[in-house]
Amino acid sequence: MDREKGLRGLPFAREGFAFMGLSLGFSLILFFLKIPIFPYLGFLFFLFCLFFFRNPKRMPISNSSDELISPADGKVMEIKEMEEDEFIHGKTTRVSIFMSLTDVHVNRAPCSGIIRKVIHRDGEFALAFKKDIDKENERNYILIESDKEKILVVQIAGFLARRITPYVKDGVEVKKGDPIGIIAFGSRVDIYFPQNYKTMVSLNNRIKAGMTIIAKRGI
To answer: Model confidence over 4-42: pLDDT tens digits?
Structure first.
């Protein structure tokens, strides 16, 4: 997992480097050409990229194997009990997290374990709060096996999001809180876990990736 190790010490996600470099270079060129207004707009976009692609250091609030932490920054938009027949094959609870443009967009492992599957599926780019986008929109499935249980994280693109980048692949080991991917300008992350876990968050709660305890087992 060499790529993920390299990401731990970076204050910005690598996916933002091209945006930062181009916007800063563009604004400097226009400044030296003495073109009015546009150099400042380019620099403002550079500052926006610094903010959007930030990757703050996160230390898990709990290392207990009985607790899951949030895979994403954002607001809890749905909590639903449902059957998950493709990856977990059983009754699960799904917590859906909406990420606004102001949230950190690096996603993190909710638990320690082995990555069993990483599957990308093409789709639409509907608004993140639209019903059924978990089946219609472009998305990336990351299945983690932890203590013989399966936890599923789904990265879902939205209206502005056009690229989902996983940092992990099949067979690698992750630790709780490790970066597992990013959705550039992206919008929603779902986590599915077995119903022997109790959900520890409520609708509209603001939560943080790698820090907020989202569920506890055996309560």
So the answer is: 444 455 676 677 677 777 777 878 887 788 788 888 888
Q: Which of 23, 100, 187, 202 is catalytic?
A: 187
What's the Cα-to-Cα distance from 66 to each of 48, 70, 130, 153, 201, rounded to whole Å?
38, 14, 32, 17, 16
Q: Which two tokens stand for residue 89?
A: 């094959």
The model's pLDDT over 111-153, given as tens digits with 9 standing for 90+, comes to 999 999 999 988 775 565 555 666 777 889 999 998 889 999 9
The token pair that represents 103 in the structure block:
């949230």
Residue 160, pLDDT above cutoff 70: no
* Full-model pTM: 0.80
Q: What residues pair up with 18 in beta bridges, in sequence order? A: none
Residues 6+ away with beta carbon under 8 Å from 110: 68, 69, 70, 71, 144, 151, 153, 176, 191, 193, 214
Q: In the annotation, is 187 catalytic?
A: yes
C-alpha dihedral over 109, 113, 119, 120, to 10 degrees?
A: 10
